[in-house]
Give the backbone structure.
Amino acid sequence: MIFVSLIDNIALLLAVCLLHGLVMSKAGHRRFLAQLLSGLVFSLATLVAMSRPVILSPGVVFDGRSIVISLAGMFGGPVATALTVVPATIHRLYRGGGGVVMGVCVVITSGLLGMLFFHLRQRRAYLTQPLYVYLFGLLVHVNMLFWTLTLPRDVMVSTFKTIWIPVIVIYPLATLLLGTLMANLEAKVASEKAIQTLNEELEHRVSQRTAQLEAKNKEIEEFSYSVSHDLRAPLRAISGFAQIITRRHRQNLNEEGRHYFDNIVQASQHMDRLIEDLLRLSRLGRAGVRSENVSLKELLEDIRVRYSSRIEAEHVVFSLPNDLPTIRSDATLVSVILTNLIENALTYRRAGTHHCVEVHCAKADATVTLGVTDNGIGIPAEFHEKIFALFQRLHNQDEYPGTGIGLALVKKAVDLLDGKIVVQSDLGRGSTFLVELPVQVL
Amino acid sequence: MAKAARILLVEDNRMDVELTLDAFREGRLANIVHVARDGQEALDYVFGVGKYADRGKYALPDLILLDLKLPRIDGHEVLQRLKATPVIKRIPVIVLTSSKEEGDRALSYDSGANSYLVKPVSFDGFLDVVRQVENYWLVLNVGPPDSFETDSPGQPPP
């Protein structure tokens, strides 16, 4: 009979224990607040336990308070213990009767034993293992039985006889049950906190790294900007004064002098193109990649118009496909790709052939493949990879003019658009550049 | 044109100065070009500070050609100070620079530049630019009144 009543009392505590878990998981990272809130929960649990006691005789009552108070001490810390012990003491004093001394002493010593274990377990984490929690429960309740000595003589012996078995059997088990539950909750909160800390650390490191990269990028941009502009000023002087001499003082120069001055003018113009292309390369994608409607038909017609005088003068057969789609992409980047590929196709022609440049386009679900084919000089297989590198040229200026930046620009633009570029070419037969872009075809 | 136009050329690079002056000489107009070699000198000239206090000798320019990369005070700041000053802000300022950067262009126009020109590398290109500047800004364009004391007739309605 007393077993059932005590178990009923303890079951109530389980519910409160879950509330404690909620508090820990919500406020576990703020130590003082957590102690305060769990103190309130423990205090509530104690009062609930004390309100449904097992009454042995008037003034001699038993309930689960020793369990809650000792666990409040062991898991809640000083603030929670104080918040639990004080109301329980007041409650017991208010109820009065022959068991008041024992009741108050049990409340206070249970709290003290809990605090003792709270301090012990800071250095000995194993004390929250089930065996030690059980031993702790046993200790608390042997202590409880000890205080039966303070009961009035007439009820002391009979009370001890009635309660010692349930107290030694049920209470430590209940302590074990509730204590293990709390230890698990505590471990869960701790590991969540550890994960959170790790995440924050990771986030911090990522943002730090990003900031470093951004700073580096900015540095490179500033460098290329300033190099390009500072290189231009002396270049303008070289080319400007050389041109003044070739124009105004041409008659004073002999043929060799004229030739050399023409070389200076030519070389400085080439350097100007180099700087311009380098600037373009460093600028490309700096403003981010846009997503806009790009009409390939309009874009390619524009390029055709831009090169029309060259196409006509060199009698090139230039053909565009009829069904060019509109795609979602970045117009500037697509234009860089097509302009440079077409310019190359126009440039590297074979002597004595009828030069043809053909643009083609294949649509798939989520990609479009643009191709530029010519019947020009072709590219040896060993250079199919290398040609996309900066300043990689296969010919000298006199054979085919160029800066060696065009295909590097194309590659960078393709990369910015997450696309792929391949070249198919046979030496002496011509080349085909294929660009596959992952885009929405409208 | 009754009198020669007065141009203030703000340029730190000696060779660019020579090229510009040479290009002006090849042009048909008789211009008086004063050269300021940095931003501070340009501001001193326009505001009549120090050795430029004598307005009779150093009259306000009809046109300012302004480089952006300048020692001491850079072109952007010169432009901002000129355009923040009543009356002075009426003088047309043409930015003449090597930079095509969007940032420089945006900031220049935001500060009130009247035109933005990129210096060509070739001398032919340079000549062309100078010729067109002369033709547009000193012939076609009607500048602010000679008497800089003339008030504008109040603020236009917003």
